[in-house]
């Protein structure tokens, strides 16, 4: 398929590479030239088109146009949506693949549907590893648009990812919001558990423990695999500080949503608070738990870590 991709950051550039290698025809746009240079370097044997403006990107696409935006949620995404939608015609498809608030997605869906433009709010997970393993893709918005772009989603989800349609409006981004909230609790639990192992009276080989945990136990899975990788590089996590980085929107929104509905969310809320406190609290920064969470975020998402 032909698709216009806006935003060549950590996720966008990897998605572009995967789609181009899967023989899709891409027209890309990014604010900075550096991103183009990196993409050209990685794809020297492949062809793709570069647009010098958003208007040119739209003009280079055939009807119905498919445009996928991979930008930070909030004002940046809104500004691009406002401009791009002004160039589109009835029946064109525009996708927000960032971590937008589902309420914003709901409003955008209503507004664009009123103009005859098919809108999708898609949660894209899997971090930087998904470029190889396959993206898990959570789709909400126009079902007609979802069915039209299935070849793109099939390519992005190869070999071990997947995609599902969950309903109109902000459904896809709601699912992604909850996913990221759960992620906080899982990482904090792994960090605290391995912190206890590290401070026991025994001299445990933590990587050996993690490898055994990965062999069919209830805590095996994606994050335990990343735990093994982290401990292989730095068995005692002595090279990094436990500065996790401030909580992002999705988990904050999930906690707010749960409280509004009087639902229990204590574990996720506390993991969010610890992340924020790690910015300034020396005790948390020195803890094995916080170091582990910071290291895991780097392993699956490429997030920066502070050196000890």
General description of the model:
The model has no long low-confidence stretch (mean pLDDT 96). Strands 3-2-1-4-5-6-7-8 form an eight-stranded mixed beta sheet, with helices on both faces. It has 308 residues and is an alpha/beta fold. The chain has helices at residues 10-21, 33-42, 54-59, 75-85, 102-114, 130-133, 143-148, 150-157, 171-198, 206-213, 222-233, 249-260, 266-277, 282-286, 288-301, and strands at residues 2-6, 25-29, 49-50, 66-69, 93-96, 118-124, 136-141, 162-165. Helix 5 links the parallel strand 5 (93-96) and strand 6 (118-124).
Concise overview:
The chain is α/β, with parallel strands linked by helices.
> What does the overall shape look like?
globular
Q: Might you state the CATH topology name of the largest domain?
A: Rossmann fold
CATH architecture descriptor text of the largest domain = 3-Layer(aba) Sandwich
Q: Give the helix/strand class.
A: alpha/beta
Across the major sheet, the strand order is 3-2-1-4-5-6-7-8
């Amino acid at each position: 398929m032909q698709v216009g991709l806006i935003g060549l950051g950590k996720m966008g550039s990897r998605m572009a590479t995967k789609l181009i290698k899967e023989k899709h025809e891409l027209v890309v746009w990014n604010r900075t030239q550096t991103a183009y240079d990196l993409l050209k370097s990685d794809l020297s044997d492949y062809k793709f088109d570069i647009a010098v403006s958003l208007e040119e990107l739209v003009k280079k696409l055939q009807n119905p146009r498919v445009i996928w935006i991979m930008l930070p949620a909030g004002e940046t995404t809104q500004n691009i949506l406002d401009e791009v939608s002004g160039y589109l015609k009835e029946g064109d498809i525009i996708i927000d693949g960032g971590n937008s608030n589902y309420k914003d997605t709901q409003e955008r869906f209503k507004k664009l549907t009123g103009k005859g433009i098919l809108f999708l709010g898609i949660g894209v997970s899997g971090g930087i590893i998904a470029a190889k393993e396959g993206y898990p893709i959570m789709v909400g918005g126009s079902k007609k648009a979802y069915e039209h772009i299935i070849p793109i989603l099939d390519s992005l989800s190869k070999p071990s990812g997947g995609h599902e349609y969950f309903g109109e409006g902000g459904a896809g981004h709601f699912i992604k919001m909850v996913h990221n909230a759960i992620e906080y609790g899982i990482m904090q639990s792994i960090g605290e558990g391995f912190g206890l192992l590290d401070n026991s009276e025994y001299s445990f080989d933590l990587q050996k423990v993690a490898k055994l945990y990965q062999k069919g136990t209830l805590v095996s899975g994606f994050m335990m695999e990343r735990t093994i990788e982290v401990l292989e590089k730095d068995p005692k996590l002595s090279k990094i500080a436990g500065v996790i980085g401030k909580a992002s929107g999705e988990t904050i929104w999930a906690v707010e949503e749960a409280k509004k509905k009087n639902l229990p969310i204590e574990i996720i809320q506390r993991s969010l608070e610890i992340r924020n406190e790690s910015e300034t609290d020396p005790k948390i920064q020195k803890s094995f738990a916080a170091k582990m969470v910071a290291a895991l975020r780097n392993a699956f998402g490429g997030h920066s870590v502070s050196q000890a």
